[in-house]
Each structure stands twice: as C-alpha cells, then as structure tokens.
Amino acid sequence: MQEFISDSPTSLITQLKRSFAIMKKDLRIYYNKGPVIIQGILFPVMLFFAFTIGRNIAPVYIISGLMAMVLFLTSTSIGPVVFPWETRQMTLERLITCPVSIKTILLGNLWSSLVFGCVFSTIPLILGMILFFEFQMNYFLIIMGIIIAALAFSSFSLILSVPPTDMPANTMILTILVKFPIIFISPLFMPVSFAPLAIVSPLTYFIDIINIGLGIESSFGYLGFFFDFIILMVFSLLSLFAAFFLHEKTITRRFS
Fold this sequence. Notes:
Helix content is 72%, strand content 0%. The chain has 10 helices and no strands. Helix 3 crosses helix 9. The longest helix is centred in the middle third of the chain and has 30 residues.
C-alpha cells in the first residue's frame, strides 16, 4: 500500500490537500445515508429522552450530557460506514489507485466525521443558550473542547471500520456493541463524581470541559481542564495511529 510519496513538506501538504478533497466527497455522499442518520441523529434523540424523562436534572448537566452524547454519536457515525460502503460499490479500488496513501484516505474520513460532529453538537449548545440564558458561558473553552473531542471521537471511529467487510450493517453492529457501553458508563446528565467507572470513558473528559465552560468546577482539580485536553489529545493520537496500522494490515483483504 502506498505511503506518503516522500517526507518532504511539499508532499505532505499535497497529501493533506487530497485528504480535504476526500472529506468533501464523504460529506456529500454519506451525511444522508441510513446508518449515519440512525446512529448520528436518531439515537441521540431517543437516548436523550430515555435518560431524562421523569428525572429532575440540573440544566448544566442537561446541556453537557446532551452535547457529549450528540458529539460522540455524530462524530463516530460516518467513519465506520465509508470503507464497507465503498468496498461494496467498488469505488475504494479506484481511490486506492490514485496518488494517495491509505493514511490520506483515513484523514479524509477523519475530517468529514469531525465536521459532521462539530456542526451537530452546536445544536444543543444553542438550545442551552436560549433556554438557560443565565449561564455565563466560556465560549472559547467550549468551542476548543468541541474541536478536540470531535477529533478524538472521529479518530476512534476509524478503528471501528477496520474489519474488511463490504456490509455497512456489520460495522453498525460492531459500533453499537462498542459505543453503547461507553455511553452508559459515562456521567451523562449527572456530576462526574457520581459515575466511578467514568474515568475510562473519553466522554467524561469532554463533559468536564463543557461543565467548566458553563461555570462548574472541574472534577479533576484546579488544572482539570488541562488534564481533560491532554487525555483527549492522547486518546486521539493513539486511536489515529492504531487506525493507520490496522487498516494497512487489512486493506488488501477487502479485494480478495
């Protein structure tokens, strides 16, 4: 499989530009596909009502919990379906014969998932601004949190598309089996301290960032927001490099 043509800055910039072209293609083709709509839009709505109906939840936790759930599910909805869908349509073969590496293709998938997640996660933020206008929001911190968390979740979604199948339904089953346990152990619509297992979930650190942005003290001490950003960045890099490695090992099996 092709790697980046060389290590020169010009080559890297060229591959990066090509990854943005792949991003545009993914957003244009996959944003309205069934698996993306179900997992990225319908699931957050259903889970929100399942978590909140009949419960007396503080507004700050409604906003942070809903934003975390929406961002996680939308950022991980496009990545898992692109490879099986294009394998089935036999467009992946044509894409690989182009002067792009597998890493460039994965970066294109990453950018599309990141944009998709960032756009939809702003909806609960705007609703929170309208319904709970008494909050003194730190918009810079919240926006930075959305971007870094979308990067982390999108990188993670690339791992979910590793199995060399041409059936998007197969990856949907895998993503449900992986993502729902992460959601249920996360401190959605509650203080982080109420969920002792939450430290293993990347959603926890995004929720903590949003809570700080809404005026709540961090659950991880005075410099908790630095800790949150570091954890999400490390999770993002580990997921991305794992996706690079695993896809390079399995890509040829998609055409056998």
